Amino acid sequence: MSQPHTDSHQNHDAHGSLKSYIIGFALSIILTIIPLVVVMNHMLNRTGTLILILLMAILQFGVQLLFFMHVKEGENAKWNIMALIFGLVILITIVAGSIWIMTYNQVAH
């Protein structure tokens, strides 16, 4: 006799609903179109455009995590978010430290 099909995704409550997927998709489209329109129409100067693109990218990252990767859902949601924040702190520290070293290392020469 064969055993019933067991799947690691037995709990369907941990997955998003169609409504949450549509909201996430719509937000993703909007957060992509905003910088596109600003760049194509030269609505901001270079610095403003770069800041807007960076801000939209960060918001897009959050939308992807919340609506599609379900970071806030499940048994270990708190630990998943803490691990993500820790990883981001490490990433920002490495990138900012590298930029700082490259910028001020020129003084030594």
Q: State the assembly state of the protein chains.
A: single chain
Structural shape: flat
The total of helices stands at 3
Biggest β-sheet, characterized? Answer: none
Q: Which strand-content bin applies to the residues?
A: under 5%
Low-confidence stretches: none
Number of strands: 0
Distance between the termini: 76 Å
Class from secondary-structure proportions: mainly alpha
Task: Give the % helix.
Answer: 55-70%
User: Roughly how many Å is the radius of gyration?
Assistant: 21 Å
Secondary-structure element series:
HHH
Mean pLDDT: 84
SSE blueprint and pairings:
Elements: H1 18-40, H2 46-68, H3 77-104
Helix pairs in contact: 1-2
Your description of this structure?
This protein has 109 residues and is mostly helical. It is built from three helices and no strands. It has helices spanning 18-40, 46-68, 77-104. Helix 1 packs antiparallel against helix 2 (46-68). The longest helix is centred in the last third of the chain and has 28 residues, at 77-104. The chain is flat and about 55 Å long. 1% of the residues are buried. The mean pLDDT is 84.
